Amino acid sequence: MANPSIVIIPGSFSPPSMYTTFASHLQSNGFETIVGTLPTASRTPPSPAATMEDDASHFHDVINALADEGKDVVIVAHSYGGIVANQCAQGLLKTDRAAFGKPGGVVRVVFITCIVPALGCSTSDTTSDIRFDGISVQGDYMTLDAVESAKMNFSDLPLDEAVKFSSHATMHSALSFAGKLSYAAYEHVAVSYIICEKDACLPPTFQQDRIKLIEEKSGNKVDTRSINAGHFPPITRPEELAGLIQEAIIRV
């Protein structure tokens, strides 16, 4: 049986280029891998800022096209990408499509240190107890301070090296964090969650709480794995992370 295709949904402030090395390892392991672009992280003023719903609509179209080719799809989401992964999968699960005689569809969602809200909640709601340093709001857009972002997102690297990576961050829509989840894919499809043990952005306790939420709402056990990394293992541990993704997919 053919391997499923992988669609990577980046985190906030993150261009696809920050996932290139990680994606190449997945491709080397035999998985067609598409790194998507968040509308919320690719527009700049004076263009109107995108919303979480815009992100979900974009990725819905990407995944739907793959499913229409008869392909099974695994969504791999990182950080903010967790809410987008849930929202975009409505109507795209393999079981949903099979009911209408259609092939392909989403067979698993893998969350990498993700924000996974309850139904009716937003990214801001879900992270209200967490302090994010270095974010500046300019109208409907946000920017990151490179040094503060380095400390938060690349805490497992020396600061000078971390700043080199954090400087690649894009502007991000401030509107996106207010978008409320109206479809929880995690209640209806197999889920894996990769805990980043050294995460200084979304602490392991927060990640564990997301896993508990998923298990409570779905009634199913989450396939849980961990990596000794900070918030951005697609950059700091790409090969190891790709191996964990492959292990999770084998469970499909």
Automatic annotation (TrEMBL):
Using the record's annotation, list all stretches that form the AB hydrolase-1 domain: 6-242
The superkingdom listed in its UniProt entry is Eukaryota
Instruction: Give one Pfam family.
Output: Abhydrolase_6
Protein name in UniProt: AB hydrolase-1 domain-containing protein
